[in-house]
Amino acid sequence: MVGFDGFQLLDVTGPLEVFSSASRLLRAQGYRGPEPYRVELLAAAPGLVRSSSGLGIHAARSWRDLDAVDTLLVAGGGGIAEALDDAELVQWIRVQAPRARRYGSVCTGALLLARAGLLEGRRATTHWAAVDELERLEPALRLVRDVVFVRDGRLWTSAGVTAGMDMALAMVGEDWGRKLALEVAQQLVMYISRAGGSAQRGPPLEVQVRALESRFAHLATRVQEQPGAKLSVDTLASWCGMSPRHFARCFRKEMGVTPAQFVEGVRFEAACQALGSTAAPVSKIAALCGFGSSETLRRVFMRRLGVTPGIYRRQRLGADATAA
Fold this sequence. Notes:
- The chain has helices at about 10-30, 80-85, 85-95, 110-115, 130-135, 165-175, 180-185, 205-215, 215-225, 235-240, 245-255, 260-275, 280-290, 295-305, 310-315, and strands at about 40-45, 45-50, 55-60, 60, 70-75, 100-105, 125, 140-145, 150, 155-160.
- The protein is an alpha/beta fold.
- Strand 7, helix 5 and strand 8 (about 140-145) form a beta-alpha-beta unit.
- The radius of gyration is 21 Å and the shape is globular.
């Protein structure tokens, strides 16, 4: 993580704690391989780097001394204006970020990526208060507004402060699997978002963890793999070899939601993913995700998010996306 005087404390400590927690959990579970994650704050010079709150973190070394890195992230914060004028830092980011396996930013750190010329033609986001500044710095940016984080190939960018933790969780899930990401989120008392939308748009963490640990784990996986299938209580019960009435009662007791509520949540997440990553018509997405019609999908989105699928798509993909 690259920091500078006036960085936002949570931009650094939040994501780095996610990675560190993942390492500790893996070790506790018996993993004996190389250190899963080794986190480090880099600054202009070794020593104390003060955050915007006045609290400081010790940087063990300068970013000038970095030779190779797996994941390179740039923090944001109140000191971003001065950082943008640091020509040496900007040039270093321009050269080193593309050499990493993945790179990105938290909050207004995206402004530094833009200044370094790394966001031209790329999908990216930042804190809501800085989106206009980001567009000014990089007019060719494909800005995605009002989302928690965005991934465009090896480039990851997130909105403000705690959104960096959501992004880090997604990285852990990519590296070690969704189960570990859920366990880290549970350890840190967080929600986990699959599609980069608001951290509260997906099913509550408790439901996701229960799905992994209950006797219905195989059923939950099957539903997630085929959200467009006929998923009535009778069908789900038959998959479990149970009577519909007994199944519905046991499922609600173990999962904390009804089968219908669980199925709708899975279908909703699948629709969010499709709207944010494909140009398929809304009517086709509605059918593929099990909603049947675009009108049904529209009602679900209005109830859950207060926006239509078309508006959600424009928010995710930017102004150049077309709503079907």
